[in-house]
Amino acid sequence: MAKDRSQRDDYAAPLRRLLTGVVCLCLLALFLIWRIDSPRVERFRAQVIDAVVPSMDWAMIPVEGAINLFRDFQSYQRLAEQNRELRSELRQMSAWKEAALQLEQENARLLDLNNVRLDPRLTYVTGVVMADSGSPFRQSVILNVGARDGVRDGWAAMDGIGLVGRISGTGQNTSRVILLTDASSAVPAMIQPSGQSTLVAGDNSPAPVIDFLENPDLVRPGDRVVTSGDGQVFPAGLLIGQVTQDRFGRLRVRLSADYERLEFLRVLRHHGSEVIRDPGGLIVPAPGTGTIPRPRPEGLGADTGDGTEPAETEDG
Amino acid sequence: MASTSPARIWVMRAAFPALSLLVIFLHLLPLSTLPSRWAPPDVMMALVMAWAVRRPDFVPTLSIAFTFLMADLLFQRPPGLIALLVVLGASFLKSQVHPHRETAFLGEWVSVGIVIVAITLSNRLILAVLSVEQPSLGLILIQMVATLAVYPLIVLISESLLGVQKLSPAEAEALGSR
Questions:
Q1: A300 pLDDT exceeds 60?
Q2: Which residue ranges make up each domain of chain B?
Q3: Region annotation Disordered: residue ranges (chain A) (predicted)?
Q4: Cβ-based neighbour number of residue A63 at 10 Å
């Protein structure tokens, strides 16, 4: 029997080693292909996610609901305390509400005066967050809207208030949003009121860093950060957050979007803003349409002074 | 004898991808989208190591490769690299196992620890050589230490609840002769 077994091992072991080698080669090849031709493999990844994640949805919703229920239950223990806090907050809020109403009226009046027209092409499609990245090293979420809904790579995703991230990778029914907090995210932005352009770069912390700032002295904590629309990445003027300073004195952005609870995200349809390419293209019509200044009369070159164009000859 | 029957082996072979899918599913739940300061342990890696030491026949190479490739794709890791390293690490552990000898748990823990550290470091090194963007070293070290710390717990659960135990010499003989 022992001899029998050793004979079995004789051909089983090399076979197994061969299989391991082949598998390793395949995996290595996949990794190298990803390194060389990343978009193709990322498309494949989007397709895999598209196939797998929606099928988990039926289980995800109840489990997530149960966990949230448990968390809420924990918070019921502090109910009385919370109630008191809420009341005092409510009092403050009613004062703010009054201020907001006045500002809203003023704003409407000013918009009317200026005859401002908001960009009519900036429509959006709203998606539900299905899953997050699942890894502590990556900050992204998966939405339940995809190529089927016309979502394309590079569009901006917002929650009700502020920018959340950028679409990167779309499947047929799902799409991935790289959050602003992800280490690979960098968004051209503008700080108001000083009007300086900067780059809001994520670094895997809750508050992204303000990078490439020309003059940090002009920026104060509390200033608003909005997208600048540079580089055609996002439409201009989307709210990102407010400037804060961390312990080490670095300028960061406190994001306006509620990252604690991303549930519904708006994906803004952005078809690129119009670009003015050649200077003066707006003012002067295209050449050859008859408004080119006439060439100087030939007689002027010799400066004979025959009196046909008195204004010119007097100068010369 | 029951733990060597073909039905049992195939059930446990299916159990590994199923458990891994459960772990992936729990990771993907969108409970918190804030970046966290710590990293949870890599339960899948601890699981595959514990099983490879105990019952290599429950975690065939193909199953490991497929499961970790799936995890790579879903977790947005560079596809294939972690899978490749885990396959190599697991086959190294399988080859180290003396099927009939009862080893002390401490020794096993040390050898698994060496493999996990090697996987983590070589992953980091390969990504650095190919200049792929990487997360901060602190988080990765936290995850590595957490994985090592959670390993005895995984072993305990595998042995008591799932019945993944080393074969006695008689059982190994029976399995081998079939």
A1: no
A2: 2-29+41-177
A3: 279-316
A4: 14
